[in-house]
Specification:
It is a single chain. This protein has about 300 residues and is of the alpha/beta class. The protein has a single domain, classed as Aldolase class I (TIM Barrel). It contains ten helices and 14 strands. Helix 1 packs parallel to helix 2, helix 2 packs parallel to helix 3 and helix 6 packs parallel to helix 7. The longest helix is centred in the last third of the chain and has 15 residues. It starts with 5 loop residues before the first strand and ends in a 10-residue tail after the last helix. It holds the Pfam family BKACE. Keywords: Metal-binding, Transferase, Zinc.
Length: about 300
Amino acid sequence: MSAGRKVIITCAVTGAAHTPTMSPYLPITPQQVAEEAIGAAEAGAAIVHFHARNPEDGRPTPDPDVYAPAIDRVRRESNVIVNITTSGGPKATVEDRIAAALRFKPEMASLNMGSISPYGRQRILEKFEHWQHAWEQELFVAAPSRVYPNTEDIITRTIKEVGSGGTRFECECYDVGHLYNVAYFADIGLLTPPFIIQTVFGFSGGIGLDADNMTHMRNVADRLFGSDYHWSVLAPGKHQFRLCTMGATMGSNVRVGMEDNLYLEKGRLARSNAEQVARMRSILTLLSFDVATPDEAREMLGLKGQGRADG
């Protein structure tokens, strides 16, 4: 890849893995999520990835009515690309998981390409003496028995129903086998190129953080998809900026944000998602990369455009 290419920055503003006790800056209410998304866009993010939380206690929720104030405000006040999750907790139904994407028909939606089971997340309990809400402790206590299912039936239904509105899928691949799952769904005609591939490194139950793993994932994607895909990288916590920088030098787009990392640097919590986006943009600029605007990203990824986001 040439040094002058455009790099797309995605910002995942809140997610479902972190909890209110872990950072006072984690956006919880729809108003906070909207402000964080708009701030991230102003700092240089072309795409903003959405989850929703119960505004009373910060618990993740798939309720489209909770998404609505944030999505509506961002669409009114920003040109940023809206990307809505279709993932969910172990007990979430498919109807729950796709409800927001069906209602808002975004330009993009994330799509986990295989089932995963987290390992070791219960160790987070050791880091905090007091929790703001009982559900936070319960989340980590139950982690050893938890599976996040993404079966063929779940993925098929998500593609058919959410994709019918013109939404393009960001295929989240936590391990090498998930790349082969993308190829399978392409072979049966459910996913069409160019594919949007998000490789995820360092999450429990998935592929590790070694540089060799990043090269391996890219090489497998090259064999499966040729040049007919767009590649992005994300990594958790302290590994975020290092792995994203490594990926950018190898030809990837990047994802930052409080869904993946609560810190700006060692020992310093990020006070906003915009801080992380600005830091990532600064790194890319120092490496002589240009950062894509939302409209440039739309053209690169073949999206339907904000004006057609509702169908």
